[in-house]
Amino acid sequence: MSVLVVSGTGTEIGKTVVTAALAAVARAAGRSVAVLKPAQTGVAPAERGDADEVVRLAGGGVTAAELARFPEPLAPDTAARRAGMAPVGPAEVADAAAKLADEHDLVLVEGAGGLLVRYDEEGGTLADAARLLDAPVLVVAPAGLGTLNMVTLTAEALRARGLVQAGLVVGSWPDEPGLAERCNVTDLPKVAGAPLLGAVPSGAGALPPDVFRARAGRWLAPALGGIWDADAFAAAVRS
Ligand SMILES: Nc1ncnc2c1ncn2[C@@H]1O[C@H](COP(=O)(O)OP(=O)(O)OP(=O)(O)O)[C@@H](O)[C@H]1O
Ligand SMILES: [Mg+2]
Q1: Suppose 87 and one of 20, 120, 151, 178 were both cysteines; which one would form an S-S bond, judging by CB atoms 3.0 to 4.6 Å apart?
Q2: Can you tell me which residues bind substrate (predicted)?
Q3: For residue 143, what are the contacts with CB-CB under 8 A and spacing of at least 6?
């Protein structure tokens, strides 16, 4: 697996933090890593984008790439149109990811918002880029109430497009999970039709980067390069 598309159920759910954890464990295993944020919206030119945030958390050995930056915090297609700038379409995303994959062991492509957010006027999405790359898609999801529906919809959209869902990762697992969060650990993989492959604790993104890197492997399952144990996690939340 040299290109992994990191998508999710929406925005502000922890895709960037999960991408940073993936990059950190891959670097720790000696793999070269690039992170591609095709369209970065809502960030001024001098500000840190998601790819920069991944490098900050995962370490300077990670290559950060961005194809376009649009200032308003909107879907890429809308933000490009309003800025009078050229949008970034799926073919361009796939091209850039494939080039990075020539030079890196792992390329992580972080989408904007959820899976079917539009990138261009033709309605191209990250799912189209994943198709062109024949790359699996990792779905990041919140922990709580409302997530089962969003994960079901995302899994259905992936299947309808013939895409492989690598699995699910909870973007921000609360210190004190409530009933919905605890039940979701059992139900999320069922509705996704894909395994739960990790949970990043809430607050992880604010850890000092060296601590983040040292701990990242504990949040991700072996399939993603870590040591997180789904059964032990499920048993702990049930008790
Ligand atoms: N596990 C976590 N620990 C600490 N902070 C988190 C965690 N998950 C998310 N956050 C915080 O929540 C906010 C949104 O997270 P993040 O940037 O990862 O979302 P996203 O899904 O990548 O959103 P976007 O669609 O904008 O890319 C950020 O300020 C981030 O620091
Ligand atoms: Mg992000």
Answers
A1: 120
A2: 41
A3: 170, 171, 172, 173, 174, 177, 180, 181, 184, 199
| Ligand 1 atom 23 nearest Cα | 12
**Which of the 8 DSSP states describes residue 121?**
T
**pLDDT at residue 1 tops 70:** no
pLDDT digits (tens, 9 = 90+) for 139-171: 999 999 999 999 999 999 999 999 999 999 999
**CA 89 to the chain's CA centroid:** 19
In angstroms, rounded to a whole number, what is the distance separating the alpha carbons of residues 223 and 189? 15
Q: Residues for the chain: how many in total?
A: 239
Ligand 1, atom 8, lies closest to the CA of 14
Please measure the distance between the N-terminal and C-terminal CA atoms of the chain and give it in whole angstroms: 35
% of the chain residues with pLDDT over 90? 97
Residue 190 annotated in active site: no
Determine if residue 41 is labeled as part of a ligand binding site.
yes
Residue 238 confidence class, pLDDT cut points 50, 70, 90: confident
Residue 131 has pLDDT above 80, yes or no: yes
- Cα–Cα distance measured from residue 45 to residue 50, given in angstroms and rounded to the nearest whole number: 13
